[in-house]
Amino acid sequence: MSFPFWTGFLWNNTILCVTIVLLSAAKAGLKRYTTAKFQYYIWTSLFPLLLLPLLPLEWSPLNGLGRWFPTVVKNSTASSSPDSASGFPQSIHLPADWLADFSVSAQHSIFQGMSLFLTVAWIAGILVMIALFALSGIRLHRLRYNSDLCRNEDIRADFAQCKASLKIRRNIRLYQTGKINTPISFGILHPCVILPESIERKLSKSEIHFILMHELLHYKSMDILINYAMCISKAIYWFNPFIWYAFKQAERDREISCDASVLEKLDENSYTDYGSTIINCANQYLRSSGLHLVLEFGGKKSLLWIRIAEIARYQKGDKRKERRSMLALTLIIGTMLAASPFTFVNAKSSESSSLSGENVVFEDLSSYFKDCDGSFVLYDLNNDQYHIYNYEQSALRVSPDSTYKIYSALFALEYDVIQPTRSSLPWKGIEYPFKEWNKDQDMNSAMRYSVSWYFQELDRRQGIKSLKENFERINYGNEDLSGGIDSFWAESSLKISPIEQVQLLKRFYLNDLGSSAENVQAVKDALLLSRTKDTAFFGKTGTGAIDGKDANGWFIGFVEEKYNTYFFAVNIKNGIHCSGSTAAEIAMTILEKHRLSLK
Hints:
Number of helices: 21
Oligomer: single chain
Distance between the termini: 40 Å
Number of strands: 14
Strand order of the largest sheet: 8-10-9-14-13-12-11
Shape: elongated
């Protein structure tokens, strides 16, 4: 898992902690006006928020509706496509050095090591928690296997009567065993209630009746399922004390809520008897079983007197309190879900983009990416149609590397750092590994040879604040320049997806970025690789090298015909030669397949 994932995930946990604090405050403030069920069920609103950061799910902040990734889009039925394009020449003479791609290696060992450490520690914690829960599950399986079906006819008849009164039709088995010290219930596929073997000797019939009602109401309220969900959540978020606190409170509120549900079924004269049953059961049996996946009638000693106090305060049939509880719970859950696109998913969305409402043709171009993972995006301007290979990677945001220099140059022109006719900067005598860098540069030569020091100087003269404003203005990927003014674009904080590259190139080409036509044309001229009578070919490579090894290769650009323009982006990674030059060669081969390119 990458470091950006951890940045987002830890941010999500921060938001979760704040949410838990707010929920606790809301519970306390509404306690007098809401029911015990509200006090319990409010904690269940955490489950979708705990799950969202881990799902491949994206949200639209405009409508708050989610959709699965990758996006399912309509395949185009238009008769015209890049394959049927005509008029593009079959041979273009390109400069001999057009594929020269220069990059300086970024040193990311610290970030990679930290990401690896966090990933290993997180997974190790999850495995430990899973092992504990698995052990609990094995013990429960053995317990049920070694338990006998309840043979006491009075208890069995009472159990059946309780089920009927609660309208439970599910086959819930009733067992007894001498291996437990408190009544327990568990199981989703095969739910059961297990009683201590000595229960009929130590408790009265009425007390056993209360216990059976309590355990069955746990099942009816889906507390068993919620308990399993809490166990899974604690395994995933084992490191977050706020999650453990929230679910500890939920466990307390669950028992209080279940007590209230029992009292709702009883007449008022039986309230004292029910409370006495809890105390008597505690005296006879109360001892934690240590089985995390079960619900225990007695619960913990620290909870006993809280439950008794709540039973003493219980008032039956308060319809106004029930309506207030329903309204409050609906508002709280609605508010949390409505806000989630701007909190929980935003951190994840910094790693991915999406494409919706477009005509898209998905293509299998895997044969062109035999030695690496790659993606290809092409947009046909006239037909408003995308051709995409590997949607998931096409929507994944990665470092733009030298492709960002298109916009670095444009911003410098807009802020008058350089001018179209006066763009030269002097070489300061620093020796670089590429001879093409070791001389004075203008915008055209710096773009062709991807001279990093030239664009770093442009960025410094403009300033990080202005740069950030410009990247935000044009909606460039995740708009994150926190990696520093000299390296935010080089395998650092700034990320953009191939789909976004193509969309931004289209806006740049159509002069839809709020820049002057003269400056846009100056950058286009710097990107020009070849021109014939009817066709012009523009492009920019980008290579991300980490610790001396090529890790990320880009080639983006556009093909301008007499009657149409095509925008494209190729990104490659996880291969031996993942450079911009390799990406360019792949792009040329694919474009030729579409008869948009170049022998």
